[in-house]
UniProtKB/TrEMBL annotation:
Species of provenance: Variovorax paradoxus
Superkingdom per UniProt: Bacteria
Gene that encodes it: lptB_14
CDD domains noted in UniProt: ABC_Mj1267_LivG_branched (cd03219)
InterPro entries found in the cross-reference section: AAA+_ATPase, ABC_AA/LPS_Transport, ABC_transporter-like_ATP-bd, P-loop_NTPase
Cellular-component GO terms for this entry: plasma membrane
Keywords: ATP-binding, Cell membrane, Hydrolase, Membrane, Nucleotide-binding, Transport
SMART domains: AAA
TM stretches of this protein: none
The EC number(s) this enzyme carries: 3.6.3.-
Name of the featured protein: Lipopolysaccharide export system ATP-binding protein LptB
UniProt keyword Nucleotide-binding present: yes
Disulfide bond found in the keyword field: no
UniProt-recorded Gene Ontology molecular function terms: ATP binding; ATP hydrolysis activity
Residues in ABC transporter domain copies: 5-237
Amino acid sequence: MTALLQTRSLSKHFGGHAAVSDVDLSVKQGEIHCLIGPNGAGKSTLFKLIVGTHEATSGHIAFQGQDVTRQRPFQRVQQGMSIKMQAPSVFKELPVRQNIHIALQHHVKGRAELTREEDRLLALLDLAADAAKPAGELAHGQQQWLEIGMALALKPVLLLMDEPTAGLSPEETFRTGELIQKLNAEGMTVLVVEHDMAFIRQIAQRVTVLHFGKVFAEGSIGEVIADPRVAEIYLGKTHEH
């Protein structure tokens, strides 16, 4: 598979501290790639470098073969990235359908096509029955799914997700995994930062482990779980909590 997103020797320093250090990451077209690691490993910083909210100290980021290292976040979105942050940021006072409508309106031409796309996303998200309900009345998991739908409205080629299961029940977490797998089956490339190892096992096709800002291990979920070094720095700590 061709690399859709690549970082090369990517670093971010805060004062004298290297939060991310010489990271080479390759996310291939059509895969679900998960980024894991213990607290302080640099996952969030790397995510922010990729989406453009942090500026790299050194190194390069390529997306679809184009150098986007110095591009601002909106430029990366225009190139085909779409971002789902940890906390849902839906328009809580507006109906669910209106949230989807707002996200779609500049990306779909014609009222009939707009309505069809709204209906498609509402069905995909299992929110059709709640379309007229204010978004703020949805359960937390449903608000997360709605924001995923709003991210999909941008017609991305790469969906970036920062801890999409934060605050979700086990059932909501599993259903979120099913949604991501369905999107991937339709061709979506997904990069996920996550702590929940059961969720990682459910969705991951490839896993990169960060530790102290560096790539510590990479491979399939089976390979990563079987690595005793990973168990020592990450999985073991997870099981202790």
